Amino acid sequence: MNKLLITLLFSSSLLSSEDVSDPFEDINRLTFQFNESLDKFIAKPTASFYSKFPTPIKKGVTNAFDNLEEINTSFNQILQGKPLTALNDISRFFINSTIGIGGIFDVGTALGLKRHEEDFGQTLATWGVPAGPYVMLPVLGPHTLRDLFGRPVSSFLSVTFHMTESDVNFGLNMIDALETRERLLEVESLLSGDKYYFVRDSYIQYLDYEIKDGLNIEDCLLYTSPSPRDATLSR
Questions:
Q1: Most CB atoms closer than 10 Å: which of 90, 110, 162, 170?
Q2: Are strands 141-144 and 134-137 parallel, antiparallel or unpaired?
Q3: 184-196 as b/e, with b when 16 or more CB fall inside 10 Å?
């Protein structure tokens, strides 16, 4: 995850502002500033506190939440015409949920079952649905219109969606958000210049990376260079 984020930061010169459909930029920027305020006073301090937890505990949390996404991934692999990959991913879910004690231990990877990430937004992309305009949502962050329409389907396929206790569901989602924010602490120091553009362009490239099932990270680092606007290494 962190390696991918660093790659996207350094490869942002592949994507210019003209390549992104952002007709709502003024509104998006206001929403971005609101999200930045929430992050400054709530999310980042909490994530910084969580970062001091022992690594095995944090790794177990990451594994557990990755495991909860395997059903969604498997279903979308089928919709994308990749039944063998779907079998790989559903096997990971059953192995990690049982032998891996609820996904805390990633036994599937140890057995050679590679983890993938798919959602319904990516499925729509493989069906030829255009990305549409870029939108920044309060709290939820960056999206494209295509991914916004795909979000309800992926949420329905999420294991946590079907938990009957709403407080448990809410708590798990908050822990998931905290764990994700903690992983970003290591790379956010690389951001500089116009942070709105940096976040937007990196997000669009991340979507492209996922839709194409990944790229050669080493080649990306070798053949791209940071743009003056986006890739200064200090704030």
A1: 90
A2: antiparallel
A3: beebeebbeeeeb
Task: Classify residue 215 as left (phi > 0), alpha (psi -120 to 50) or beta.
Answer: beta
For the entire predicted model, the pTM comes to 0.77
| H-state helical runs in the chain | 2-10, 25-38, 44-50, 55-68, 70-79, 83-98, 107-110, 120-126, 145-157, 166-184, 195-211, 217-223
Q: What's the rounded Cα separation, in Å, for the pair 35 and 141? A: 7
Residue identified by tokens 């329409």 is 149
**Per-residue pLDDT tens over the stretch 126-178:** 999 999 999 999 988 899 999 999 988 888 887 655 555 555 455 566 777 78
- What is residue 14's three-state secondary structure? helix
